Amino acid sequence: MMKRIVFALLAVVVAAGCKNQKPLLPSVSGKAGEVMVVIDKEQWDGVLGENLRSILADEYPFLPTVEPRYSVVNVAPGAFGDLFKVHRNIVFMDIRPSAEPGLTIYRNKWANTQCVIQLSAASAAQADSLVTADGAKIVAAVEQAERDRVIGNTLKYENRDLHAVVKSEFGAGPHFPTGYKLKKRTPGFVWIADEKQHSIQGVFVYSYPARGTAEDFSMESLVVCRNEMLEASVPGMLDGTFMTTGTYMTPSVNFVRYKGRSFAEMHGLWEVEGDYMGGPFVSHAFYSPDGSKIIVCEAWVFAPKFDKRQYLRQVESLLYSFEWDKEENVE
Question: Could you tell me the pTM of the whole model?
């Protein structure tokens, strides 16, 4: 009798605990880099849809071939049922006379790691103005969601030994998923890559003395120091060849602040001096905690048989996983 009472009490406690738990969300659907836009076909085919496509499907910067930033699919509101509600990235256009104009971003609304962006407007013209005004916010929200998914999977399936290698050399570093391997380590330089039959996703982490002036993070200075480091550390397949910065496009530099860290983000193309190899790269350059060195984390891709957008987005996301052990802010 006593055992029955104990089991009954346990059942009540467990049931009560379950009621307080948040419901488990399903995993997101859709391909990486895909955005679903929920909007009437008439508006999608008109000025509003054209404006949305110009923002979401514009040319991805610094790729050797033209590729859209995102793959965009349109679904009419009447067809937007449960099957579509778990899509990874959704831009929902709420256009009705009584709508309060504005932009709202939801995380994990109907699925885990989901990004839902709702634009509310009283008319298509007002919606078009909102898209123009908030286009950068829309792109940033989707990009952050795509990045967070890569980082989340990386931490779930991490090769901890690689982070330890970089940390021992520079005091901190990005995280790497299984599949990446250590290619080279010399004082002040670490090369880690995921090499498959027809593609390479690589990461360099290196450092060099800082001058302590604004020129440390100018495009010219970053390129000169990059070329010096890669000529010494990254040989090509043929004798006398080495990786360098491509001259077909002039690299761009933006200054970014992300989760308490500040860095100069450079986009460009790499090539091999004396050979016919090349591809895109992205680098983050910042001061070491004591300001004596500049540390550079660089992501690059070689995939001559494939589109490169998603390869680059994946490996670039790893750079954003960089963290100092004590959350030091480096300006």
Answer: 0.89
